[in-house]
Amino acid sequence: MDMIAAYNDVGSYRGAAAICGVDHKTVKRAVLAKGLQDIPTRSARHHNFDVVADVVAKRIANTSARISAKRLLPVARAAGYPGSARNFRRLVAKAKRAWRADNHRGRRPGVWAPGEVLVIDWGVEAGLHIFCAVMAFSRWRFVRFAGDERAATTMEMLARCFEALGGVPKVVLADRMGCLKGGVVANIVVPTPAYVRFASHYGFRPDFCEAADPESKGIVEALVGYAKSDLVVPEGLVGGDLSRANEAAGTWCAEVNGRQHSDTCAVPDVRLEAERPLLGALPSLRPSFGRAFARKVDKLSCVRFGSARYSVPTKFIGRNVELQVVGNEVRALHFGEVVAAHELVAPGEASIKDEHYGGPRRPPRRAPHPRTAAERAICALGEVGEAFIKAAAAAGVTKLGAELEELAALEAAHGADALVGALSRALEFSRYKASDVRSILAAGKGLPRPSGRGEALVLDLPKVPTRSLADYATDNGRAS
Hints:
Blueprint: H1 3-10, H2 13-20, H3 24-34, H4 53-62, H5 69-78, H6 85-102, E1 117-125, E2 128-135, E3 141-146, H7 151-165, E4 171-174, E5 181-185, E6 188-191, H8 193-202, E7 205-208, H9 218-235, H10 242-257, H11 268-275, E8 292-296, E9 302-305, E10 308-311, E11 320-326, E12 329-334, E13 337-343, E14 350-351, H12 373-379, H13 383-395, H14 400-414, H15 416-428, H16 434-443
Parallel strand pairs: 1-4, 4-7, 10-14
Antiparallel strand pairs: 1-2, 2-3, 5-6, 8-11, 9-10, 11-12, 12-13
Helix pairs in contact: 1-2, 2-3, 4-6, 5-6, 12-14, 13-15, 14-15, 14-16, 15-16
């Protein structure tokens, strides 16, 4: 039977489908294609939460869709809602979707100019404070570790980032950090005076993101999470060992900056070279961070701090320097330039660097200063004469002056070369009297020269058969 005729007879899709042996949807398509009947409109279904739908929509609009269904349920109960909590959650979810569809922020992706914005933020993982910075255009990343998140530490990390960049961007966008925020007026962040002076010194404009709006700096939020998952956890970095952590961070940054970025499809180091000419120049003087302590370099080319000594180059003897403690490091600055840096040492100890004194320390050499004619004659023999005087003095030869007069007389009789040889042999056998030297000279060249002990003589002897001692014992129990 024809589907159209069957539908005209029974007046329903399912009835016509049963008569024709087809699906009811097939009948519906055929009927609608002929234009015989419009799609039937389903009557609105009644829900038990309809009585509170307006109340829920109003509360959701007043709270910007942040109120929960659990908090709204008592209000709905009081307004006459008789249903279950599960059904009420469906109403709240539907109302929130409707409100957000009409009140979307309409966020657009960021478009960054070269050399314009540097975004910074802090993170914490495994007891380490992670400072992260990203150049917005090139995606060049800078990650370092510190022991705290104070203002001095933050500005020092920024200075290190500028040194690594080779320039200064126009804007530094930061979160509303308590260390850099002096106050908030009309939702405008007022930076601290120290941060303003730091920004003026480097020539950038400090900027702060909106409150409770991580999307405005998601570019660096992603870096913080990336550094935690790809650097801190795989390397097994823990709090306290900042030197090892920063060494690993430098290697990691060199690796990720030399690799193609997934968003820009370019290498950050290459893009940074393109925007580096647009960066501001670094100042000639580097700023100091934290509290400075004035000290005068003493005659030992050292300064004292915390009952400990720290060396500085000898050219600063008598000058005033500023000491600054950053983490576990003590720095000596002269007109803003770091002239010496040491690790903190305990009170009473000293931290000395050889390069501050022109090289490694040499042992003290107390050369003899001859005054009498005999002393001058022996010292004129060279190193052998000086060594003889020192060794004799160390051996306790109290009448060494008289002995030297006799030795000087022996030089006139035997010559300088013979006396030098005799003094050398006397030194070898620790004989420091003039009579001993005279005996050596009298013996001439026939004196024996004992040599040191040689190696042990090892001989490979042939093996011979041996007998046990039991073979030589008498047998007292044997019958005669």
